[in-house]
């Protein structure tokens, strides 16, 4: 009986850790629908999904990084750099508008991954340097932010502004990326390597897991997705706005952790991350519905919720060890 009860507690703990954000999201949607007439409308739902799609793209890459036991603080700056380079490159056509930001951001991710994997430096320090360096590069390209490049290619602009069934194209791109990431993380050897490294890097190396190569790959992936999100946002706004992205890396980390991915690595998933992103979007929508609360209040709520999630993860992990 004791072993059965212990097994059940472990199963419940695992379900809460993996799907807790989805449960809370469903609860908030129900409460919001019952409280505010304008909340449960197609227009509001579309607004939440569309506004969350860009953060979701970044958070997908961040999920791989955190599961591997790392952190990437440079994604906010890469998001802005991607937008500026995409707008600049759009004058040379759609291909250049995508290739330029992806190429530049990919190189940054490659350099960060190599430094982290080959030297053993802390990801926090390396990506913090990346955050500062990339933002400085963006300011140099945009003349200290004085120059705003406009999107001049209609095909590229339609990539961010075009709609299908009431949702913009970035939503469908995000959904496709999430599906690919799920398969990559759960059904491939690369995904299993990511989990193994995050769970115990030394043990993974002894088992023959290519630790350095996997680490480099996750940081390149994170940088590419941040650059892509910036490019799509530039297409939506028809310009490479230089004042965006401040604190975006913290939003991405919050969404990933709220979605059930452990900050210590070794556990997590894309479904939880998407739920975490939508949860932050729904919280913002509910605050907007109230009307007399500012966006700063959303940061307070998100921060408090993140703290609760981290404490809950700690308790659930302890419960699993005891069982």
Automatic annotation (TrEMBL):
Keyword field: Cell membrane, Membrane, Transmembrane, Transmembrane helix
Topology with respect to the bilayer: Multi-pass membrane protein
CDD domains in alphabetical order: TM_PBP1_transp_AraH_like
Record InterPro entries: ABC_transp_permease (IPR001851)
Stretches that traverse the bilayer: 21-39, 45-66, 73-89, 95-117, 124-142, 167-185, 216-235, 270-290, 296-316
Coiled-coil ranges from the UniProt annotation: none
Localization, UniProt: Cell membrane
Tagged with keyword Kinase: no
Domain of life where this protein originates: Bacteria
Name of this protein: ABC transporter permease
């Amino acid at each position: 009986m004791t072993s059965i009860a212990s097994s059940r507690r472990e199963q419940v703990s695992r379900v809460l850790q993996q799907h807790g954000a989805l449960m809370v999201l469903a609860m908030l949607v129900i409460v919001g629908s019952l409280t505010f007439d304008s909340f449960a409308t197609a227009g509001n739902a579309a607004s939440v999904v569309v506004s969350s799609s860009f953060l979701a793209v970044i958070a997908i890459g961040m999920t791989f990084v955190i599961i591997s036991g790392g952190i990437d603080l440079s994604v906010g700056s890469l998001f802005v750099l991607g937008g500026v380079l995409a707008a600049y490159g759009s004058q040379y056509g759609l291909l250049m508008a995508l290739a330029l930001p992806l190429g530049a951001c990919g190189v940054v991710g490659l350099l960060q991954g190599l430094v982290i994997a080959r030297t053993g430096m802390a990801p926090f320090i390396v990506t913090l340097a990346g955050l500062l360096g990339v933002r400085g590069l963006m300011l140099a390209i945009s003349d200290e932010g004085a120059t705003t490049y406009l999107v001049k290619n209609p095909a590229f602009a339609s990539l961010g502004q075009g709609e299908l069934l009431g949702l913009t194209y970035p939503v469908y791109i995000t959904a496709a990326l999430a599906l690919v990431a799920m398969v990559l993380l759960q059904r491939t050897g690369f995904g299993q390597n990511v989990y193994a490294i995050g769970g115990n890097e030394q043990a993974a190396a002894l088992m023959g897991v290519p630790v350095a190569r996997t680490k480099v790959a996750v940081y390149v992936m994170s940088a590419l997705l941040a650059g892509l999100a910036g490019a799509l946002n530039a297409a939506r706004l028809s310009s490479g706005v230089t004042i965006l992205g401040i604190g975006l890396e913290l939003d991405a980390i919050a969404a990933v952790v709220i979605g059930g991915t452990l900050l210590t690595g070794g556990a997590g998933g894309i479904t939880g991350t998407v739920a975490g992103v939508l949860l932050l979007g729904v919280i913002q929508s509910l605050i907007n519905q109230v009307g007399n609360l500012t966006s700063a209040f959303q940061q307070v709520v998100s921060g408090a919720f993140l703290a609760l999630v981290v404490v809950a993860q700690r308790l659930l992990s302890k419960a699993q060890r005891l069982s």
